[in-house]
Design a protein that fits this description.
mainly alpha, Protease PrsW, 84% helix, 230 residues, PrsW
């Protein structure tokens, strides 16, 4: 495969998933420029994450549990959470609960897309392998982004329980990312029997959270009141 088709195949899943979740915003779509900016910031996170993961890998050994839950998921999700919390959480464009999902998914898919590009050029995968990466790691990063963004939205717009939702916005992605990585690591020959139900659960859970976040939008309430007045 030549360079351009490989690059397009590696980038397409992230762009398609980001478009899907962006279009799920029913009431007040976010500025596309800001969403793209978060995607690019997520892409840039790959470099410091790689450096830190390599250092931790040398220092903490090769335990599968430590690697998957701390070195892999812990570091990656913390950096994404840090990015969203300090750049977006108090931004004026973050004006309804679903916005947290849009920005978190954008950062997560930026990260996953560059990882996918590196994998494609360093490993020379077949078309089947690229499809499987689109269905598994790239999609999984989007699901972790939904978890993070949903609870950031709850933290910003719910009355009370702010610290609880902030904690969940970080801990839930770390946990499920760790479960995902650990499952792939220890079930090498029969991984599909575990990954299909896991990914089905993550997708169904994410779509449910998307509905809940949209349902909690103050803009939805405002439109309902306008209809009543009319």
């Amino acid at each position: 495969m030549s360079v351009l088709p490989v690059l397009m195949a590696a980038v397409a899943p992230g762009v398609a998933l980001l478009s899907y979740f962006y279009l799920k915003d029913r009431y007040d779509p976010e500025p596309i420029s800001l969403v793209i900016k978060m995607f690019l910031f997520g892409l840039l996170l790959v470099f410091p994450v790689m450096v830190l993961q390599r250092a931790l890998g040398h220092g903490l050994g090769d335990s599968p549990f430590v690697f998957t839950f701390l070195i892999s998921s812990g570091v990656e999700e913390f950096f994404k959470w840090f990015l969203i919390y300090f750049l977006i959480f108090k931004h004026t464009s973050f004006d309804e609960p679903y916005d947290g999902i849009v920005y978190s998914v954008a950062a997560a898919l930026g990260f996953a897309t560059l990882e996918n590009v590196f994998y494609a050029f360093l490993n020379g995968p077949t078309f089947y392998e690229l499809v499987m990466r689109a269905l598994l790691p790239v999609s999984a990063h989007a699901m972790f982004g939904v978890m993070m963004g949903y609870h950031l939205g709850r933290a910003k717009f719910s009355q009370g329980k702010v610290h609880k939702h902030l904690a969940l916005s970080l801990l839930l992605p770390i946990f499920w990312h760790g479960v995902f990585d650990y499952t792939l690591l220890i079930t090498k020959a029969y991984w599909i029997w575990f990954m299909v139900p896991l990914m089905t659960f993550l997708w169904l859970r994410s779509l449910w959270k998307v509905q809940l976040a949209n349902a909690r939008s103050p803009l939805r309430m405002a439109r309902r009141e306008e209809r009543v007045k009319i």
